[in-house]
Amino acid sequence: MIESHYVYVLRCGDGTLYTGYTTDVERRLRDHRAGRGAKYTRGRGPLEVVHVETYASRSAAMSREYAIKQLTRTGKERLVE
What we know:
Blueprint: E1 5-11, E2 17-22, H1 25-33, E3 48-55, H2 58-70, H3 73-80
Antiparallel strand pairs: 1-2, 1-3
């Protein structure tokens, strides 16, 4: 079985954007909503997935995650439009 790797962007309840990496977007969203995700997302609900990209390798996905995190707020907003 070939595992897919995902980069995702969440919109938090306070309007901020959070970018992360996972192999299962739905499970990761459940983790975030249950307070088991990133410290940043705790207390910032409700959380909504607004962007997902799929990659064949972990390294490609993590490189893209880093690139997205380097974008300005405006750049991230353009990405999720």
